[in-house]
Specification:
about 25% helix; about 150 residues; binds guanosine-5'-monophosphate; five-stranded antiparallel β-sheet; alpha+beta; single chain; 5 strands; 3 helices
Length: about 150
């Protein structure tokens, strides 16, 4: 998918917001929703999305939606630091499939990083699909700091 196109109401994050597929929720407010990634790049890999914007990427994003998403990303990054004590935190956001975007509802990745660990993004995460029960337990431990 290119940088241009129509918003697909059937994309996974639209389905999560509609309650049609489950997610390991970390935080939500009036405008944003944060949850754990199902194919994590590291322990605690989280995503933040707007609940109302239909922007597929940053180039289309309303400034207020962007500010709301980034404010939540900051909250989640602070909570992840408290919960997991990483050495660094990678904040990333991809635009267009050529840049690695696979879900076309704007999202910000928050990836805890540890010295000596991987720093890049692998196609299916570091270990493929995460165990749902492990994600649920991890989300609960991070939520304690939110
Ligand atoms: P992108 O490559 O588009 O920036 O990132 C999409 C991310 O969404 C990937 O890290 C992928 O693992 C994650 N993802 C895709 N589908 C789902 C889903 O249904 N639930 C969750 N929690 N994460 C998803």
């Amino acid at each position: 998918m290119s940088l241009d196109g129509a918003y697909d109401e059937g994309n996974p994050f639209a389905l999560i917001l509609a309650g049609k597929i489950p997610s390991a929720k970390l935080y939500e407010d009036e405008h944003t929703y944060a949850f754990l990634d199902i194919m994590p790049q590291s322990k605690g890999h989280s995503l933040v999305i707007s609940k109302w914007s239909k922007a597929r990427n940053l180039l289309e994003m309303e400034d207020d939606a962007l500010a709301q998403v980034m404010a939540t990303a900051k909250k989640v990054a602070i909570a992840l630091r408290q919960a997991l004590n990483p050495d660094g935190i990678h904040i990333a956001q991809f635009n267009g499939s050529a840049a690695g975007q696979t879900v076309f509802h704007l999202h910000v990745h928050i990836v805890p990083r540890w010295e000596g660990g991987p720093v890049g993004f692998s196609t299916h995460g570091q270990g493929g699909m995460a165990d749902a029960e492990e994600l649920r337990a991890l989300a609960e431990s991070v939520r304690a700091f939110l």
